[in-house]
């Protein structure tokens, strides 16, 4: 059963703590992405990775870190430096083909609440 | 000017009618265009993508692209209550990224 899994679904943390969100895909997609969504808003890109051991900052990377040690996995760490971490975090993956950007598929998301 | 703009709505349409959702974008170099549906509390689900000018039909959905005018639209025919959701327009930026609009909330009234 192919797809993208994110865990946990809900996460609660105290301010000042780092937290890592999991994202795994078995679609054999090369590219993976992390987005953040705040209430009533669209998606904003945090980090993305086109190949293993390489990743790029998106539009709002400050306070976040990622790794891409395996093709299937792209974990996101929300650090204590992120000023407003409470949000809905979405992981996506995409087949990477020569010449262009193709459709992205999303996991179910992790809702993070920091108090 | 926002890179991708959508009317936030809410857009209210009677059941069985045609729902029309619009999106404009600022980057003339954009090549790929996507429509996602997002139910409340859920993640976005891809429903259509279009790369060439003109219309692309898939069941009750039609995507329309006009690169000269920099707009892309989504038509939903025979609207059903299950179509009530937020619809996100996404536009490629370069070869690696998508930029999303803020979404249009659509309500289908029985």
Helix-strand blueprint:
The complex is a heterodimer of chains A (115) and B (110).
Chain A: E1 4-7, E2 10-13, E3 19-25, E4 31-37, E5 43-51, E6 54-57, E7 64-66, E8 76-78, E9 87-94, E10 105-106, E11 110-114
Parallel strand pairs in A: 2-11
Antiparallel strand pairs in A: 1-3, 3-8, 4-5, 4-9, 5-6, 7-8, 9-10, 9-11
Chain B: E1 4-6, E2 11-14, E3 19-25, E4 33-38, E5 45-50, E6 54-58, E7 61-66, E8 71-76, E9 85-93, E10 97-100, E11 104-109
Parallel strand pairs in B: 2-11
Antiparallel strand pairs in B: 1-3, 3-8, 4-5, 4-9, 6-7, 7-8, 9-10, 9-11
Structure explained in plain terms:
The complex is a heterodimer of chains A (115) and B (110). Chain A has 115 residues and is mainly β. Helices cover 0% and strands 49% of the residues of chain A. The radius of gyration of chain A is 14 Å and the shape is globular. Chain A starts with a strand and ends with a strand. With 110 residues, chain B is mostly beta strands. In chain B, strands 2, 4, 5, 9, 10 and 11 form a six-stranded mixed beta sheet that branches. The interface between A and B is medium-sized, with 24 and 25 residues.
Outline of this structure?
Chain A has 115 residues and is mainly β. Chain A contains no helices and eleven strands.
Quaternary state of this entry equals heterodimer
- The averaged pLDDT of chain B comes out at 94
Spell out the helices and strands of chain A N to C: EEEEEEEEEEE
Helix count from the secondary structure assignment of chain A: 0
Feature tags:
heterodimer, A: about 120 residues, mainly beta, four-stranded antiparallel beta sheet, 11 strands, about 0% helix, about 50% strand, B: about 110 residues, about 55% strand
